[in-house]
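Board notes (copied after class):
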Amino acid sequence: MRFANVEGRLQRVGPDGSLTDVARASGTLPADPLGCLERWDEVLAWAADAEGGHDGHLDAVSPGPPVPNPRQVFGIALNYQMHVGESSFTAPEHPSVFTKFPSCLAGPTSDIPVGTDAVDWEVELVLVIGRTARLVEVADAWDHVAGLTVGQDISERDVQRRGPAPQFSLGKSFPCFGPTGPVLVTPDDVPDRDDLALGCTVNGEQVQDARTSELLFDVPELVSRLSHIVTLFPGDLIFTGTPAGVGAARTPPWFLAPGDVLESTIEGIGTMRNRCVAP
């Protein structure tokens, strides 16, 4: 099943792209995406039998981030071996975790303000938690994932590297530095939830191209490990890490500038298209 956030209301997306407003059509479920995620089993049960196509078409709207107001947003650094190598690090023994503050989230067509000459791209598979997760075993982790979406972990590298301790969370949380979308897709509705192609282009040039099967810590491992330290709540996001091809690793470095167009795609989920603009 596929869902979209249209003007703050969760919509079920039909196979033809038609939209059905969850709250209006069900008569019992909430309108806002986070409220629906807190009742995700009810949403799925209703959506399995719901008639669709009454509230427009996905192509005719500008969807927002699938979860616009999560409690927590986690990011995973150095989670593809080729990206570890291009960054001149060694592979971590444990997931390297930071946070993106929720105020940075934006939609799949939102403009990205670029105010410095060190703003980088990072396409990522993003998990959306659908059930409260605490001390979850790896074998049970997928049961706590509501769905998958496309994300960009936009990063201001100069701020990120300010020391003596790096400022990962600040450098990755400028306004609109977390576009996600275009839809939330349940794990059973993608070709292979453990092996999806992902990539991005800048002005039409391919800059990243990989598969999620290359993750050093895969989806179940991330959910399990995080849940053994913090409680994961419905609607929480996990940016699972970016593959090789970031601008900072190139010679010379290549960063985003106003006027650039960034397209980010994951197999079975869709494509985001974000334009870079002056602040």
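Comment from the instructor: Helices lie at 22-26, 33-37, 40-49, 81-86, 157-160, 168-171, 219-227. The chain has a mean pLDDT of 96.
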